[in-house]
Specification:
It comes from Caloramator proteoclasticus DSM 10124. The protein is α/β, with parallel strands linked by helices and 377 residues long. The protein has helices at residues 3-17, 19-28, 32-35, 91-108, 122-127, 141-146, 171-179, 193-203, 240-251, 359-368; strands spanning 48-49, 73-76, 86-89, 114-118, 131-133, 136-140, 156-157, 159-162, 165-168, 187-191, 217-221, 228-229, 232-233, 258-262, 271-276, 281-285, 290-295, 308-315, 326-337, 350-356. The radius of gyration is 21 Å and the shape is globular. The two termini are 28 Å apart.
């Protein structure tokens, strides 16, 4: 696997097959066949903003690399605003997503004998609000991610689809933590950040803390750090350090046993991070089969270590049906290191996620990008 060569091939294909992206490149004066010669040139690759995939923007079909008939399925984000992102994927794209999610999971997966999650079963998550869109199946992107995770056969799923709604059954969770209290079992917990946090805050008022021990782990994923995910809204931003401290204290799981996975609907891989007491945040490892550029909010130039900005993700794989090779996210990140993780020794780029752009920063971004959903480097 050679990322640069594969990315160049992917971008050249996107340039040829997606008229909208080719026009963007022409406006930017960039041609991947002539201007992408070394890894240093990656910073000049034009990007498409995630907002361009929003339903209201109406460009998701224009951002395809295939005809609508060539789409295997549409994947949709779990929007809290009622304006989800819609991305058309090929069967090959789904297989690449599966490959890289599994690689990321294997790299960070801790052994477990028991498991309880604040997610529904994958098929129920994919079935939730599933429908037909332009004559193809349209289903949850997160559901497709969950479908790849390798849960234990006896895993307890706390969210259940009933009468078209997701219902949280909290009693099995209470029984689970009581059953493993003080036994130091290899017990795993995970799922939706807002649901876990809200549940712990409620239970700490009703019962004593438990001690699951230093072999227990807690893994979150799917976002929701702004306190909202899909139709879940706990009414407040969730600070990562507070989430870890509150949940760690109540469940008796060491803070170093907390991990979180980051992805978004317009992307083709996941990034997992482990919690750092020193940084009071998760340190996310950028995998070797991808690249991330953090761009200054005002200048859009790549930042140095310790600086923050917009996150741009470069995908060499898994975007054969849509223009997803170079995506700018409305998330703010900070470069911890370009070379290694300061805590676990991982060799590669490490970032922190600081939240979404908002307020005056969002307006500034819109002005810089011309308000048309595509960017000038």
């Amino acid at each position: 696997m050679n990322f640069f060569n594969d990315f160049k091939k992917n971008l050249e294909g996107q340039y040829e097959e997606c008229t909208a992206y080719r026009e963007l490149c022409k406006r930017e004066g960039f041609n991947p066949f002539n201007d992408l010669k070394t890894e240093e040139d990656l910073q000049f690759v034009p990007f498409i903003m995630t907002t361009s995939f929003k339903r209201s923007y109406g460009s998701f079909t224009k951002l395809l690399r295939v005809g609508v008939d060539g789409v295997y399925k549409w994947t949709v984000s779990s929007s809290t605003s009622g304006d989800p992102s819609i991305v058309g994927r090929s069967k090959e794209d789904i297989e690449n997503l599966r490959k890289f999610v599994l690689e990321d999971e294997i790299r960070h997966r801790a052994e477990r004998d028991y498991e309880c999650t604040f997610f529904p079963r994958a098929e129920e998550m994919k079935a939730f609000n599933r429908g037909l869109f332009l004559n193809k199946v349209c289903e949850s992107y997160l559901g497709n991610i969950v479908d790849i995770y390798t849960y234990l056969e006896q895993t307890i799923f706390l969210l259940k689809l009933q009468d078209g709604k997701m219902v949280l059954d909290i009693e099995p969770f209470i029984q689970y933590i009581k059953e493993h209290n003080g036994k130091n079992h290899r017990a795993a917990l995970g799922g939706s950040t807002p649901l876990i946090f809200k549940t712990v805050l409620n239970l700490k008022e009703k019962m004593k803390p438990v001690e699951l021990g230093d072999r227990a782990i807690l893994h979150t994923g799917g976002g929701g750090w702004d306190g909202r995910k899909g139709n879940i809204n706990i009414g407040a931003l969730i600070e990562r350090w507070r989430f870890v401290e509150e949940v760690s204290n109540f469940l008796g799981i060491p803070q170093e046993n907390f991990t979180d996975t980051y992805s978004f609907t317009e992307n083709s891989f996941t990034m997992t991070g482990h919690y750092s007491r020193e940084h009071r945040d998760y340190l996310f490892h950028v995998p070797e089969f991808a690249r991330v550029i953090v761009r200054d909010i005002k200048t859009l130039k790549p930042v140095k270590e310790g600086e923050r900005g917009f996150i741009q993700v470069l995908n060499a794989y898994g975007t054969s049906a849509f223009a997803g090779a170079s995506i700018l996210v409305d998330d703010i990140g900070e470069v911890v290191s370009y070379t290694h993780c300061p805590e676990c020794g991982y060799k590669g780029m490490v970032i922190k996620l600081l939240g979404r752009v908002k307020g005056t920063e969002a307006k500034g971004c819109g002005a810089t990008l011309g308000g048309d959903g595509v960017g000038n480097n």
